[in-house]
Design goal:
By secondary structure, the chain is α/β, with parallel strands linked by helices. It contains 17 helices and 13 strands. The longest helix is centred in the middle third of the chain and has 25 residues, at 178-202. The chain binds 1-deoxynojirimycin.
């Protein structure tokens, strides 16, 4: 399944309309100095009002699928209890419009815009959040489950907890200690489990997964030793202090203990926290029960993963069994200065499907570039075409070798609000002029449409 992805706060706008409740990003953006260009998602791409045009664009491009998120507070202004019918109807109409144009909808229930009312009750620190999230998941899946058959529970807990509760770089901007942060992660995992149960009840023939992220390590050489080293490094959980190997680029293993993969995905797919992570986090690990782990470990239909950038390793005779191979000077970087590492779209799906035994969805992949409309009215984002082609060729290699791949979602359909970067990073295959709200297909949109229509054959 080939498509593109977006998220509610990044594109919808209409932040204070039709009964929508306030969320943590509404509040965060109003705080001085939080967003690089001082902007907010108040208007964003005005998708709330322009969704028919946006769906028509998807159809014009030739997308087969569209991954979007529902805004919890637009549907339930207080996070629980009363339902805002206008908000829920917006998503219902969007779904109808998509189906009408032959675009399959994929819903993400939570892409970071937590209702402010729930934040004031402690947000992810409050153990009740599993009940709140289950209630919301029930409302959405009961309303849309007759037409929407693909569901993702949460997008990137690494970021909404890691950066929301640990580094403070993203809403709600908290800087808690490790034990609190691990507690919040545990609550998010429980909430995931409860929401899977709610979706299964609301949409019995639905398929369910999650959309975590992470950075994949890939081998310097395709030797058994380097491959084993890359696998180990990919799932490594950095602890604190001397056991933390550090890293040379922002995507390699870092000093940030919440920036890892397996602490989030092993509980989902294997029903336990990774042994090495338990050792790394030691007494900071929250108390939990066997029942907790069973609840978290709900049967899932696929393994979604957002992959952008990775790092190279080789086998080493040290305490870790691997060491990072620094990128050569002057290696390609995106506008965001993220390393271009197409290999991760082969090694990521391979490592994930081997470890978890599930079909893979790349729920996000793409790049920001400094795009503008040229004198002829075109947007020649050839670097993006080259980036996506290189990544997809690696993904294709994984398919050819028999790894189970279900789909790919390019981030993003539209240029949009890139969180603390504001509107400075353009990730879209469709250009948005934020002054006029004019949409223009970039060259990459035309190129990607052919990939979607040919099921990757034209790669
Ligand atoms: C991942 C996030 O899910 C999305 O919201 C963000 O815009 C992209 N990465 C690019 O940073």
């Amino acid at each position: 399944m080939w498509g593109a992805a977006t998220a509610s706060y990044q594109i919808e706008g209409a932040a204070y309309e039709d009964g929508k409740g306030e969320n943590i990003w509404d509040v965060f953006c109003r705080e001085e100095g939080r967003i690089a260009d001082g902007s907010s998602g108040d208007i964003a791409c005005d998708h709330y009002h322009r969704y028919p045009e946006d769906v028509a664009i998807m159809s014009e491009i030739g997308l087969r699928a569209y991954r979007f998120s529902t805004s919890w507070g637009r549907i339930m202004p207080d996070g629980v209890g009363a339902i805002n019918t206008k908000g829920l109807d917006f998503y219902s109409q969007l779904v109808d419009e998509l189906l009408d144009k032959g675009v399959t909808p994929y819903i993400t229930l939570f892409h970071w815009d937590l209702p402010q009312a729930l934040h004031l009750k402690g947000g992810w620190m409050n153990p009740d959040i599993q009940n709140w999230f289950a209630e919301y998941a029930a409302v959405v899946s009961e309303k849309l489950g007759d037409r929407v058959k693909h569901w993702f529970t949460q997008n990137e807990p690494q970021v909404f907890i890691g950066h929301g509760y640990c580094t403070g770089a993203k809403a709600p901007g908290l800087r808690y200690g490790l034990s609190d942060v691990l507690q919040a992660i545990h609550h998010s995992l429980l909430a995931h489990g409860r929401s899977v149960q709610a979706i299964r009840a609301g949409c019995p023939d639905g398929l369910v997964g999650a959309a975590p992220t992470g950075t994949v390590a890939f081998p310097e050489n395709e030797t058994e030793a380097d491959i084993a080293a890359a696998r180990k490094a990919t799932f490594y959980v950095p602890g604190r202090g001397p056991n933390n190997p550090g890293g040379t680029n922002s995507w390699s293993v870092s000093q940030e203990p919440t920036w890892n993969i397996s602490w989030y995905t092993d509980p989902l797919f294997l029903g336990n926290y990774p042994e090495q992570g338990l050792m790394a986090f030691g007494s900071d690990v929250p108390k939990y029960t066997e029942e907790d782990m069973q609840l978290i470990h709900q049967p899932l239909d696929f393994c979604g993963i957002n992959l952008y950038s990775g790092w190279q390793v080789r086998a080493a005779d040290n305490a870790f069994g691997w060491e990072e191979v620094p990128m050569p000077q002057g290696s390609p970087l995106t506008a965001f200065k993220w390393p271009v590492t197409p290999e991760i779209l082969y090694w990521g799906p391979r490592f994930f499907s081997e470890r978890y035994g599930k079909p893979i969805y790349i729920t996000e992949n793409g790049m920001s570039s400094n795009d503008w409309v040229d004198a002829e009215g075109r947007i020649g984002d050839y670097a993006r075409i080259d980036f996506v082609r290189a990544y997809l060729r690696q993904y294709k290699r994984a398919a050819e070798e028999g790894y189970p791949l279900d789909g790919y979602f390019l981030w993003s359909l539209l240029d949009n609000f890139e969180w603390p970067e504001g509107y400075r990073e353009r990730f879209g295959i469709v250009h948005v002029d934020y002054t006029t709200q004019k949409r223009t297909l970039k060259e990459s949109a035309k190129w990607y449409g052919e990939i979607c229509q040919s099921n990757g054959e034209s790669l």
